[in-house]
Design a protein that fits this description.
Structural class: mainly alpha
Strand order of the largest sheet: 1-2
Shape: globular
Strand content: under 5%
Largest sheet: 2 strands, antiparallel
Number of strands: 2
Number of helices: 9
């Protein structure tokens, strides 16, 4: 499988590409480029939450704690005030970082259910729901961030499968197929429960119709303007002359 650094670099690269597309098509303001890249990067390392390596899971839960604590505190500061809101910030981060990490360490297996497509879709729904209900974003913007997280998550799974192929020795490792999967015959009931959670996640999330309509009407400019091509042609002529 790919190491942590490969996942991080790959997710940031995909995040930059997705952010550039969204920015040039006016689906995302230029001021949100940093947050969109960060969202893809977070999704790109999230599957390693079930990793046996302590540094990987610690970093993931640190980032997850910040991602949860900040929006919760922002919402809480409205009715509670600054001081109580800061208390909520610390409490939310501590709950994720030091409490929720315990069952993950004891109950999850690396390349298990967390490394799967339905888990990625479930977390996309969670991000979109949190953005819509917690941060009061519209359905389109909420699902954009959910999709960005999903792009990072999928990047992680694809990189794991790519690193399962040993090109040097022309062989396929035993880990092939353990990341980019929809189901596991050895875990029928857990996966049925996971798909039930996914249905509930879609029910709670904002309607995805706005994102679907935006993607269907997406127009990406592939070629430069005529004046740019004309300038390049003139420059080439002067260089040859």
């Amino acid at each position: 499988m790919a190491n942590f650094g490969v996942h991080a670099v790959g997710a940031v690269g995909v995040g930059a590409f997705c952010s550039a597309i969204l920015g040039t098509t006016d689906l995302l303001p230029l001021t949100d480029m940093g947050s969109s890249i960060s969202m893809v990067a977070l999704g790109g390392i999230m599957p390693d939450v079930d990793s046996e390596r302590s540094e990987a899971i610690t970093l993931v839960f640190n980032l997850l704690g910040i991602s949860v604590a900040v929006p919760v505190a922002v919402v809480a500061m409205g009715p509670l005030g600054l001081l109580a809101g800061l208390g909520v910030l610390v409490a939310a981060f501590a709950t994720v970082r030091f409490v929720l990490i315990v069952p993950f360490r004891s109950m999850t297996v690396h390349r298990g259910r967390f490394h799967s497509i339905p888990t990625g879709l479930l977390m996309c729904c969670g991000v979109a729901t949190l953005a819509a209900r917690g941060l009061d974003m519209g359905p389109l913007q909420a699902w954009i961030y959910g999709a960005l997280f999903g792009a990072g998550f999928l990047t992680h799974l694809i990189l794991d499968e790519m690193y399962s192929v040993d090109l040097a020795n022309c062989r396929i490792k035993r880990s092939m197929g353990s990341a980019l999967k929809l189901f596991d015959r050895d875990e029928v009931l857990p996966y049925l429960g996971l798909y039930l959670l996914l249905l509930a996640g879609f029910a709670l999330a904002p309607p995805p119709g706005a994102l679907i309509d935006a993607l269907q009407s997406l127009q990406i400019k592939l070629m430069p303007d005529e004046w740019v091509l004309h300038y390049i042609e003139q420059l080439a002529q002067r260089t040859r002359g």
